[in-house]
Amino acid sequence: MPLGNQQSVSIHDKTGDDKDKLKDEFDAGHMDRIATSPNEEPMIASLIYQIGLMKDDIDELRRYLTSEVGDGAKGESGGTGSTGATGARGANGSDGSDATVDLFMRTLNGNRLPKKAPARGSGELWNDRGIVKIG
């Protein structure tokens, strides 16, 4: 699934010294003061809370992309394998694997497998548009 369009807009257009002034206010601890005494500025405190939740979401996305997806962001190498149709993993290649496994993979019919992905790490087989995958 492709990345959706950005929903947010710029909060400010400050650059250079003007942006440094904003950072100075942040560095002075004004957000900490509000977070410590939320009753003094409840509207700003609620925004700080939401910003914290957004940061948690961004951190989780970063963790997922680096640990779960890794180089997968480039997409799969497809049916011909990572080195082309004649490469070790390609349709016409051979990597010296067990002949029984090769026969199984050529005769496997995934039509009766579920079309919905099972829980990640379950080890269950499923049919992803004609490609048998392991959950």
Q: Can I get a quick summary?
A:
The chain is mainly α and 135 residues long.
Query: Proportion of β residues?
Result: 5-15%
| Gap between N and C termini | 18 Å
- Strand neighbour order, sheet with most strands: 1-2
Outline: elongated
Strand count: 2
Question: How many discrete domains?
Answer: 2
Could you report the average pLDDT, rounded to the nearest whole number? 74
Structural class: mainly alpha
Supply the key terms.
135 residues; mainly alpha; 4 helices; 6% strand
Report on the structure:
With 135 residues, this protein is mostly helical. The chain has two domains: 16-73; 98-135, no CATH class. The protein is 41% helix and 6% strand. It contains four helices and two strands, in the order H-H-H-H-E-E. The chain has helices at residues 16-27, 30-36, 42-69, 99-107, and strands spanning 125-128, 131-134. The chain has a two-stranded antiparallel sheet. A hairpin with a 2-residue loop joins strand 1 (125-128) and strand 2 (131-134). The chain is elongated and about 65 Å long. Mean pLDDT is 74; it is low at 86-90 and 93-98.
Helix-strand layout with pairing:
Blueprint: H1 16-27, H2 30-36, H3 42-69, H4 99-107, E1 125-128, E2 131-134
Antiparallel strand pairs: 1-2
